[in-house]
Design brief:
TOG domain-containing protein
Length: 133
């Protein structure tokens, strides 16, 4: 887990291409019962957040990481922040790697209002995706 965090400094471009695979795995590790593992995963996510190059998403990284770390409490506030954000630049894969888990959680929420917010975010961002893989 710590190796992934250190890759943010050594090979940020290579790491950014792998983020769609890495972030879901790290979010699973955040719920590990061992506190040192949780801490290492949280630290790695913080380091990975520095790889994001999209200017709009860079400002959202703390909120996105909080929502990934504590989805029950932080998903809705993060969705609110995402709705207030005006996206001008194209959304790349590393940015989506942090946004999609939060939006996915919002779409799976029991409250209809949270689902609507997540759906609006998806609609707003679909026009900005450059490389739909």
């Amino acid at each position: 887990v710590q190796l992934l965090g250190s890759m943010a400094y050594c090979a940020p471009k290579q790491l950014s291409t792998c983020l769609p695979t890495i972030v879901p795995q790290l979010s699973d590790v955040l719920s590990d019962p061992h506190p040192k593992v949780q801490s290492a995963a949280n630290e790695a996510l913080n380091e990975i957040g520095r790889v994001i190059r999209n200017p709009e998403v860079q400002g959202l990284v703390p909120s996105l990481l909080a929502a990934i770390a504590d989805p029950n409490k932080q998903t809705r506030p993060c969705l609110d922040v995402l709705l207030e954000t005006v996206f001008i630049n194209t959304i790349d894969a590393p940015s989506l790697a942090l946004i999609v888990p939060v939006v996915y959680r919002g779409l799976r929420d029991r409250l209809g209002d949270t689902k609507r917010r997540a759906a609006r975010i998806v609609g707003n961002m679909c026009t900005l995706i450059n490389d739909p893989k």
